[in-house]
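Supplementary Methods, section 5.1.

A reviewer requested that the exact input to the structure prediction be made available. We therefore reproduce it here, unchanged from the version used in the analyses.
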Amino acid sequence: MNSPWLHSIEEGLAILSAIQDEIATGWVRNLKGLITAEVFTDFLDMSRHLLDEKYKDPAAVMIGSVLEEHLRHLANNHGVSIEITTAKGLAPKKADSLNADLVKANVYGILEQKNITAWLDLRNKAAHGKYSEYVLSQVEIMHLGVLEFIGRVK
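The structure derived from this sequence is encoded cell-by-cell as follows.
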C-alpha cells in the first residue's frame, strides 16, 4: 500500500534524522558560538567608540561584561560548572570563581588568570563609581587585552 501518509511520515523521519545528525556533530553549538562571537564583537565595537569619545567608565563596564560572559561561555564549553549551590538554591558563580575554575581545568594559565583578575577589578571599580581609581589608558589596555583573549581562548 503506497499511502501518501506513509510517504509523509518517511520524509518527516528523514528530516528528524538529519536534525539529529546536525546536533550530534555540534552544528547547534557552533551556531551558538558564531552568534555569541558576533554579539561580543558588537559590544567591543561599541566600547571602542566610547573610548574614542573618552567615556572610559561605561566602556570599562561594557568590556568587563563581555569578558564575564566569555568566561561563562568557556566554562560551558569545557565542562566547568557555572553555578554554585547556596542555602537558597543554585546561583551563578562570580566571575572570579569562574576564572579560578578555568585555570584549574587547564583552559588557560595563571598569567591569563592574573590579567583577567585585573580586568574584572577595573570593571568593578567602574560599576561601583570608583572612577578616580583608574584612567582611560588602562581601559584602552583592557579593551585590547579582552579582545585578544576572546579571539585566542575558545
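The mean pLDDT is 85. These observations are discussed further in the main text.
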